[in-house]
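User: Design a sequence. Structure:
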């Protein structure tokens, strides 16, 4: 729970409710829970960090940090968004800081990236 009753600033941005939902899920994602569900456009995406990523063969955990920072399959997609050139996250321990600094353009880029990455994931895994 927050210590004050102020709403987060991004809730007032001129962004679609779908992007606000995606960003809220990403911002509030649990760091220490082994299974994470992400809902995008009525699709449920399940990450299980106790398993390896089934898209690439790097033998890294299947979690959001891997999708956002490490997965080689998503690398060309990451290069299309300037937010990934500005914010470099060295390891999982600092991943939550990626979602702390945000402006309207950054939220658009983050949400577009995760939406396209999850479409690619669904295509690769035939979900």
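Assistant: Done.
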């Amino acid at each position: 729970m927050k210590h004050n009753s102020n709403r987060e600033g991004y809730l007032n941005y001129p962004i679609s409710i779908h992007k606000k939902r995606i960003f809220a899920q990403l911002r509030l994602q649990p760091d220490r829970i082994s299974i994470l569900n992400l809902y995008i456009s009525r699709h449920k995406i399940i990450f299980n960090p106790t398993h390896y990523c089934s898209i690439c063969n790097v033998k890294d955990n299947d979690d959001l940090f891997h999708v956002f920072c490490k997965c080689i399959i998503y690398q060309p997609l990451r290069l299309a968004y300037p937010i990934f050139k500005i914010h470099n996250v060295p390891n999982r321990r600092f991943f939550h800081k990626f979602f702390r600094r945000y402006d309207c353009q950054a939220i658009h880029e983050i949400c577009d990236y995760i939406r396209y990455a999850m479409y690619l994931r669904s295509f690769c895994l035939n979900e």
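The mean pLDDT is 83. The CA atoms of residues 33 and 49 lie 9 Å apart.
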